[in-house]
Amino acid sequence: MRTKEQQIQISVQAFVELYKLIIVLEDYELDQNIRSRIQSLEKVVENKMEAIARRQAFTEYKTAEPSTEDREAKRQKYLELVGVHKDWRSQKETSH
Fold this sequence. Notes:
Elements: H1 12-25, H2 32-63, H3 69-81
Helix pairs in contact: 1-2, 2-3
């Protein structure tokens, strides 16, 4: 049975600084073991950055004024970030 990996929480600012550090370290000559660890960490951090962008887009869409072009534009941005193909998107938000 696989156990869930333990999680920690850090501020967005600290997370962005970590991401910047990873990018800077790519320019240094490091041994293969360290470079492999950095590349692995970079993938994790990039995935998290994308998740932050999706969450922010969703929040902007949901908090925009109802029935406005701005809200629809934010909805389309969110759908694009989560990978919904344009052919599968409704042109307007539907309420349930």
